């Protein structure tokens, strides 16, 4: 095998990087500092015929205890932001919370909904993240991505195939590297007040003091996942170290060194019990990856 680039670490635990604080070992893991390094890593993995997994903060993800084969790339050091009038362009690893704060400082409105989302710009676009009445597809106008053939391709808004918790990048293998957001002129104080209101609501409703992967299930048609789980009496249900939050039934929290397998098993248990009670199928919003 051709020698790996210097920044690659072998047999690296994923848990320390994940919001769940769970997950097995990656064969290889790298955190590129530049877009050139990212492309070089992709080229190396392609040459070695290795699968590649691209993550930001791993905040909407369960990695099974058996870990991930191939190369894991974390984009978190790719976080530059630039402004062009009412537009902000951010690299994929930029925290969406930080981008919202920058927008507020510049008097740009449209990202208030993302003020408390613990993920990156790339992840927000990949999953078409949303909260509190806002969503990525409402403000994203252009995305640049490195495609499987290693070419850099620009996607206009109409090319992104946005849907509920979906984008074209879940289907085409493209690696998001840069995103442009079209915002509107606003008042700094009003924007800050809205962000504070959202963060206050989060702190009151969500179990932010424990590791979790955010809202676990997509919203089923005609229902709310959290209410179904609560009404089924599942709050406090536990598998290993992972529990259905007593504060918000839509969350699962890592209370005692829970594993990726604990998360997955608890997800399946909740799906089974909710279907038994209400004949509603809960579909995970979080991605579940890796070997058991």
Automatic annotation (TrEMBL):
Catalytic activity line of the entry: UDP-N-acetyl-alpha-D-muramate + NADP(+) = UDP-N-acetyl-3-O-(1-carboxyvinyl)-alpha-D-glucosamine + NADPH + H(+)
Protein name in the entry: UDP-N-acetylenolpyruvoylglucosamine reductase
InterPro entries linked to this entry: FAD-bd_PCMH, FAD-bd_PCMH-like_sf, FAD-bd_PCMH_sub1, FAD-bd_PCMH_sub2, MurB, MurB_C, MurB_C_sf, Oxid_FAD_bind_N
Main location: cytoplasm
Organism of this sequence: Fructobacillus ficulneus
Location(s) in or outside the cell: Cytoplasm
Span of domain FAD-binding PCMH-type: 21-186
Pathway recorded for this protein: Cell wall biogenesis; peptidoglycan biosynthesis
GO cellular component: cytosol
Lineage of the species this protein comes from: Bacteria, Bacillati, Bacillota, Bacilli, Lactobacillales
SUPFAM superfamilies per record: FAD-binding/transporter-associated domain-like, Uridine diphospho-N-Acetylenolpyruvylglucosamine reductase, MurB, C-terminal domain
A Pfam match: MurB_C
Keyword entries, A-Z: Cell cycle, Cell division, Cell shape, Cell wall biogenesis/degradation, Cytoplasm, FAD, Flavoprotein, NADP, Oxidoreductase, Peptidoglycan synthesis
Tagged with keyword Transmembrane helix: no
Function as written in the Swiss-Prot or TrEMBL entry: Cell wall formation.
């Amino acid at each position: 095998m051709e020698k790996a680039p210097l920044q690659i670490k072998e047999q690296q635990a994923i848990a320390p990087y994940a919001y769940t604080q769970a997950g097995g070992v990656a064969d290889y893991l790298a955190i590129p500092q530049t877009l050139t390094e990212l492309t070089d890593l992709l080229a190396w993995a392609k040459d070695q015929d290795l699968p590649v997994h691209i993550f930001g903060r791993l905040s909407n993800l369960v990695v099974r205890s058996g870990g991930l084969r191939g190369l894991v790339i974390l984009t978190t050091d790719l976080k530059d932001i630039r402004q062009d009038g009412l537009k902000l362009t951010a690299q994929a690893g930029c925290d969406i919370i930080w981008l919202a704060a920058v927008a507020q400082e510049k008097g740009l409105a449209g990202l208030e909904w993302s003020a408390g989302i613990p993920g990156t710009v790339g992840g927000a676009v990949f999953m078409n993240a949303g909260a509190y009445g806002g969503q990525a597809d409402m403000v994203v106008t252009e995305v640049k991505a490195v495609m499987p053939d290693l070419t850099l391709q620009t996607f206009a808004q109409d090319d992104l195939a946005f849907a509920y918790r979906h984008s074209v990048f879940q289907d085409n293998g493209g690696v998001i590297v840069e995103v442009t957001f079209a915002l509107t002129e606003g008042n700094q104080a009003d924007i800050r007040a809205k962000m504070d209101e959202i963060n206050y609501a989060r702190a009151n409703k969500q179990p932010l003091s424990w590791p979790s992967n955010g809202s676990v299930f997509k919203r089923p048609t005609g229902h709310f996942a959290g209410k179904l789980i609560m009404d089924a009496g599942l709050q406090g249900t536990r598998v290993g170290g992972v529990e259905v939050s007593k504060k918000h039934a839509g969350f699962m929290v890592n209370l005692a060194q829970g594993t990726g397998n604990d998360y997955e098993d608890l997800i399946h248990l909740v799906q089974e019990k909710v279907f038994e009670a209400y004949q509603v199928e809960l579909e995970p919003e979080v991605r579940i990856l890796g070997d058991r």
